[in-house]
Amino acid sequence: MVIKMVELQTIGIVKSKFTDRKHNEEIHKSESTIIINPEYEEGLYRIDESEYLQILFNFHLSEGEVYNLKGPIWDGQVKGVFASRSPIRPSGIGVTTVKLLERNGRELRVKGLDALNGTPVIDIKPYSPALDEAEQKRVTEEYIKTNPRSEINVLNRQENLNGLLLKAGELHGHYCPSLSFGVIAGNYCLRELGTQTEGMEELLAIVETNNCFTDGIQVVTGCSFGNNSLIYRDYGKTAVTMTRRQEEGLRLSLKPDVWEYLDNKYPESNELFDKVVVNRKGNDEDSRRFMELYRQISFEVLEIDFDALFKVEKVQLTVPAYAPIFDNIICSKCGESIMASRVIEKDDKKFCIPCFGSKYFELDGKGITAIE
After folding, report:
1. CATH of 154-316 among 3.30.300.20, 3.30.1330.130, 3.30.70.100, 3.40.50.1000
2. pLDDT band at residue 145 under the 50/70/90 scheme
3. How high is the pLDDT of residue 223?
4. What is the arithmetic mean of pLDDT over 232-247?
């Protein structure tokens, strides 16, 4: 069988402030312009009816570079070239979905194009939800089965605090400044430690408060009580220490004047907080306005300079051992399964704490308290 080679045409060129591949994360958040060659301008007719476009382009700076059929990618994993997004490929073709911001004649202003200045564009297609989303959803679901934190990992690498706060809101249920502080702190620690987590205790977060801040930490870092990588110290401080199981960790603590700054900048929210949350006396309108203000403040907090928010220090610490595995024991009275470390034995019988009536510890809004 004779295979006819496809001849590709350059239909335009990319104009961007980026000229090398050192800005892989920032480039996804930036705007650029696609300048279409005059002879193809008529092909843009009604393109501004599409909110998103798929751009095919040539990795022209990779020409002449020798590709590897298999090798390490950005996070150290070894993959084949067709299982990666490497720009060094046999055919050197890239594709990205972008948001169309504006058309001005034969110039398209777009956001999210990961192509460098001078990149040749070889085709443009409208992104069609009816055609693309069902298949994309299927592919995404399959990918997430083996990469459950893929979306959050991308947001972390891009330093996309806005996107991370949106994800944290899914868990937390609302937006508030403390949640934003947790998002900021978690992202900073991951970037400084140069790591991400699979929830197997390879990364530990030691939090010193059980308020909204901790939810931000859990979502962004993946450290949680359930995977034994979140450790709680009942200090009542908006602070976190993170470590990759080393004797040295990175501790971030919120600076004391941050709350005073927010109170002065947003006096109405402070008054409503006392009325709605502290005293529980606000009406429906007060609650609605309070949540609206707190949502606004939460996203504006993301724009504050990091150094104005947190004190950062390297600390020495004793890293806890990996969580032990306990057998399950059946309670002699209620018949329910109990973790062996919580079993109480008496007269050759084994009881759970409620059936035996023993003291236990409870973590609630006040912190850890002993219940007799």
Report:
1. 3.30.1330.130
2. confident
3. 96
4. 93
